[in-house]
């Protein structure tokens, strides 16, 4: 079912999606191309509310919906208020912890805010639609599910899904609760098709089995042709998983990650990834992305700044992105303490008594542990107020405050301000 190698698409969305590297697998790409060339379609991607914000690991899915919308098609962002009560077992070592209703509601509100950062919900023709599968799954009778839906699923086929096989091969076990996830996701596709005429489900490559199962359910029960398209797993040139850092997930919520740190995440992109990430995570024309990605030396560093600013502008707005870029310029190029650097507050008693440099770095969250702080200092990578720290036990006191803050730095790219409470 994978015929996404077609490079002569008629539809503008598939042409640009292919050029930018969004397409990994596609079911009946020729028929989908014909449908999209003939007029606007509706497509969806699901987002389970496992946290109160989406993160950079979700950015490819968000950008895929954004690109779809830019070409005049209508995206549906489906929040998994129902399926989150089970948890997607895809490529996980163990079952997700189940959430209580209050936590789930809190996360759903946060996910909605994240989605609105990337998508336009107000356009009368192609405005994104927000849906929550709890609307139909919470009312679904178990016997109805077994009779009308479960009868169309082969356990043998479900066991062949890579996401299921990997769990079983690791001997982690797969609960019956989790095993039902694919059925419920398939039910979502059919429900969205019936309610809103949705004919395309998109998602990461790990969702291929679930997507195909949904396509099959719609065909068997409603006699309709619908489609699936997956995006590739994005890793960095060095093989790291996209969106993760030593300090955890790179959240899109400014309440969970300062805008400057979001900008800095993109600024730290490896040279070999710049062109690819520009095509995937910005709205810049493909030709411009390729030109910037081919630069070398000082030029590639300027391209990284453009990547950081454009990606941040999509997520947080142009003004916030430009402010972050200016903060970086003042911090890195002029050595100033910029007021809008990330800021942490620590107990005043630490500064009254004097806190060892290694402990201050760890308490502030610039590193993850005292041991990592000691290693950073021994390697010459730690600075306090732009001065290299040579002694890990150097006491930092109120006398080190500059305009009420101490500037901490790890290497050339990670900085924050610490103030006593």
UniProtKB/TrEMBL annotation:
CDD domains: S4, TyrRS_core. It is an enzyme of class 6 (ligase). Keywords: Aminoacyl-tRNA synthetase, ATP-binding, Cytoplasm, Ligase, Nucleotide-binding, Protein biosynthesis, RNA-binding. It holds the Pfam family tRNA-synt_1b. It is found in: Cytoplasm. Belongs to the class-I aminoacyl-tRNA synthetase family. TyrS type 1 subfamily. Catalyzes the attachment of tyrosine to tRNA(Tyr) in a two-step reaction: tyrosine is first activated by ATP to form Tyr-AMP and then transferred to the acceptor end of tRNA(Tyr). This is Tyrosine--tRNA ligase. It comes from Acidomonas methanolica NBRC 104435. The gene is tyrS.
């Amino acid at each position: 079912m994978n015929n996404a190698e077609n490079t002569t698409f008629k539809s503008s969305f598939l042409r640009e999606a292919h050029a930018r590297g969004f397409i990994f697998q596609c079911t009946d790409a020729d028929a989908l191309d014909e449908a999209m060339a003939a007029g606007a379609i509706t497509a969806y991607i699901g987002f389970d509310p496992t946290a109160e914000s989406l993160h950079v690991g979700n950015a490819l899915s968000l950008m895929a919906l954004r690109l779809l919308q830019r070409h005049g098609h209508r995206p549906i962002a489906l929040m998994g208020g129902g399926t989150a009560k089970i948890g997607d077992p895809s490529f996980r070592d163990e079952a997700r912890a189940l959430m209580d209703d209050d936590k789930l509601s809190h996360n759903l509100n946060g996910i909605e805010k994240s989605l609105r950062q990337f998508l336009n919900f107000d356009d009368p023709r192609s405005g994104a639609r927000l849906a929550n599968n709890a609307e139909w799954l919470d009312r679904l009778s178990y016997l109805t599910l077994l009779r009308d839906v479960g009868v169309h699923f082969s356990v043998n086929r479900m066991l062949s899904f890579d996401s299921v096989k990997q769990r079983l091969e690791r001997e982690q076990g797969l609960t019956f609760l989790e095993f039902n996830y694919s059925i419920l996701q398939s039910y979502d596709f059919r429900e969205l098709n019936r309610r809103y005429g949705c004919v395309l489900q998109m998602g990461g490559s790990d969702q291929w089995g679930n997507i195909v199962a949904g396509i099959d359910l719609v065909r068997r029960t409603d006699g309709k042709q619908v489609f699936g398209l997956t995006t590739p797993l994005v890793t960095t040139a060095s093989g790291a998983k996209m969106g993760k850092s030593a300090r955890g997930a790179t959240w899109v919520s400014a309440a969970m990650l300062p805008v400057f740190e979001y900008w800095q995440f993109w600024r730290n992109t490896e040279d070999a990834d710049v062109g690819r990430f520009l095509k995937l995570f910005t709205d810049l024309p493909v030709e411009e992305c390729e030109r910037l990605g081919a630069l070398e030396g000082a030029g590639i560093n300027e391209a990284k700044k453009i990547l950081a600013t454009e990606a941040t502008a999509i997520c947080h707005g142009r003004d916030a992105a430009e402010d972050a870029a200016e903060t970086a310029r003042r911090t890195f190029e002029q050595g100033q303490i910029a007021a809008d650097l990330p800021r942490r507050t620590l107990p005043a008693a630490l500064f009254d008594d004097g806190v060892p440099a290694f402990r201050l770095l760890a308490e502030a969250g610039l590193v993850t542990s005292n041991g990592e702080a000691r290693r950073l200092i021994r390697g010459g990578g730690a600075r306090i107020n732009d001065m290299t720290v040579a002694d890990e036990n150097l006491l930092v006191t109120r006398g080190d405050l500059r305009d009420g803050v101490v500037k901490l730095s790890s290497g050339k790219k990670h900085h924050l301000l610490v103030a006593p409470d």
